[in-house]
Design goal:
- 2 copies of one chain form a homodimer.
- Chain A is α/β, with parallel strands linked by helices and about 350 residues long.
- The first copy, chain A, folds into 2 domains: about 240 residues, Type I PLP-dependent aspartate aminotransferase-like (Major domain) (Aspartate Aminotransferase, domain 2, 3-Layer(aba) Sandwich), CATH 3.40.640; about 100 residues, Aspartate Aminotransferase, domain 1 (Alpha-Beta Complex), CATH 3.90.1150.10.
- The first copy, chain A, contains 9 helices and 14 strands.
- In chain A, the strands form 4 sheets. A 7-stranded mixed beta sheet of chain A has the order 2-10-9-8-5-3-4, with helices on both faces. A 3-stranded antiparallel beta sheet of chain A has the order 11-12-14.
- The first copy, chain A, is globular and about 65 Å long.
- The interface between A and B is large, with 69 and 69 residues.
Chain lengths: ~350, ~350
């Protein structure tokens, strides 16, 4: 087997090697069932245990009280863009959105498409989304306030979450869930495509405050109602079993090997500091976002020319450092430092960057 | 590693062992990328190749012409129950349904819930769905005729598909897709949850005749529109990459090891004949469906008492034969003989059944 690379992909992204090893180890015979995890019934005891472990680990890691459901819904964050307004928009009340990039923009578009009364109360579009808005006024009667905690493409992140008083927060945490601890109480709903910090592609994790379920209207299809998923513990129909299984293993690694979200945050800060610090000192690489809005997860940067950027990405891959190309919509370079990327991986990247600068700078 | 069982699960179900071996073999390093298939970008060349292979193999195996799209949509067949009427119901025209069991019933419920004009033109509910209706009249102006080709729970299957003249057929083939060849031309849409005959849980395969896309109305959300999936080759957002990858390997096995759908059908008929033949001769076990409606995929049968059924299922599992319990809604026993189950697996089951009868009969 050829060597594995260090994988800075933005998502689907690197997973902890011990998790991959464990999957591989039990792939033909899942915990004594005589079947692969791919072959067991979603209604069997071994699978329900796995599902419940994923839920319970999520509860513990995020300090969720009994007032929250944790469910798994297929279709990625993109399906949530329409499900949330379908389920939670209150008749006659606006929905407040803060627009911080590509994914917020898509979420806004879907709510408008449904004919909802969308208020974009703040946006950083004026500077190509290079910062997180500091001032905004939340409508008192808003159904909820939607924001994106980390902007994978633009490389920004909310250091502290917006304050919305009694208005429930609704947050797309696809690219930074489980990267740091936070207070879940103000949140009416949190959603995250699994394929960045917690697993492979194929399911969103959706955390729903129970009181929000009272809003779910009758008229929408069963598979688009949060009440369906909450009432049936994600087992109304066959869920994305393999994704849920992998999530349960990633969360076990997070609890037992890393030691929880405080520890994970410390490591994530160290990783980001190493890389941003090097970029700022280099006089060759430059960050693309305002410093107080920088993402700890997705470090976006430019080189002096696009030619150098292409060369950088190509040579990095040859050196075993993959996934460093920026998103096709913005160009440049990006290193995604999700939980599975270690401090030493970032040091290897910085070493390569320094060498490249010496040669080309 | 303990011994693998023979897995007669109704879905998620047995997969071909060579496919599982291949996944395991390249699990840490997908085709020289230095990453797991779980970690590679859905927009990378290696993944797009895999996706396109799954699509092309489907085209070849099912003899689909250029007039069909093949896409992958998360949410299982259950999400299709609402997506199909949302996309394809013509204003002012009824939708015809034939009701042959649990899944048809659910599909009907979702269409009604959307306020569509649903005509159930035939049903076998009068005999607890133990047969496939022989006579029915398709509305000339129907938007489409929906039916379920194989009824996993009730153990019936359409030996020949219904004739609907110019009205497009729409078919839930979740539990018998790729089990036999058929003429795709009358079909406006075919859908199948992957987790029975073609892969693990977490995606439906949806085959769409291109002319049907003209019906898709503007007002529905992006992630619920077939045009979104067709226009973007299933890559509008991150798809269920691992499921698609596994499907591509299962279809490769079907083409290269089995030799295509004619050969697969011959094997499937042989398997079903062995088991039904034994049941009919036994004077102990008895089939639950009318003989001309029997499913080649899901063989449902009863024993003289429920106590014996429970004992049968328990002892079979001890003997390495799993998944033989009937669906919780109907009881009894069921052996699912999907493509990955071999002739010898069925012979082992019959041998066990004969021994059990000798002891208990």
């Amino acid at each position: 087997m050829a060597k594995r690379i260090i994988n800075f992909n933005p998502g689907p992204a690197a997973l902890p090697l011990p998790v991959l090893d464990e999957i591989r180890e039990e792939f033909l015979n899942y915990r004594g069932t005589g079947m692969s995890i791919l072959e067991i019934s979603h209604r069997s005891k071994p699978f329900e245990e796995t599902l419940n472990q994923a839920v319970e680990r999520t509860r513990r890691l995020l300090n969720l009280g009994d007032e929250f459901h944790v469910v798994f819904v297929q279709g990625g964050a993109s399906l949530q863009f329409c499900m949330i307004p379908m389920n939670f928009a209150l008749e006659g009340n606006p929905i407040d959105y803060i627009n911080t990039g590509t994914w917020s923009t898509k979420a806004i578009k879907e709510a408008k498409h449904l004919g909802k009364d969308v208020h974009v109360i703040a946006s950083s579009e004026d500077k190509n989304f290079a910062y997180i808005p500091k001032t905004f006024h939340v409508d008192e009667d808003a159904s909820y306030l939607h924001f994106t905690s980390n902007n994978t493409i633009k490389g920004t992140q909310w250091a502290e979450f917006p304050k919305s008083g009694p208005v429930p927060l609704v947050c797309d945490m696809s690219s930074d869930i489980m990267s740091r601890p936070f207070d879940p109480k103000p949140f009416g709903l949190i959603y995250a495509g699994a394929q960045k910090n917690i697993g492979p592609a194929g399911s969103a994790m959706v955390i729903i405050r129970k009181d929000m379920l009272q809003r779910v209207p009758e008229g929408i299809p069963s598979m688009l109602k949060y009440t369906t998923f909450a009432a049936e513990n994600s087992l109304y129909n066959t869920p994305a079993c393999f994704v849920i299984y992998t999530v349960s293993l990633v969360l076990k690694w997070l609890e037992e090997t890393i030691g929880g979200l405080e520890k994970m945050e410390t490591i994530n800060k160290e990783k980001a500091n190493i890389l941003y610090g090097f970029i700022d000192r280099s006089g060759f690489y430059r960050g693309t976002t305002e410093k107080d809005s920088r993402s700890l997860m997705n470090v976006t940067f430019r080189l002096p020319t696009e030619e150098l950027e292409a060369k950088f990405v190509g040579e990095a891959l040859k050196a075993g450092l993959g996934g460093l190309k920026g998103h096709r919509s913005v160009g440049g370079c990006r290193a995604s430092l999700y939980n599975a990327i270690g401090v030493n991986d970032v040091k290897s990247l910085v070493e390569f960057m320094a060498d490249f600068q010496k040669k080309e700078g």
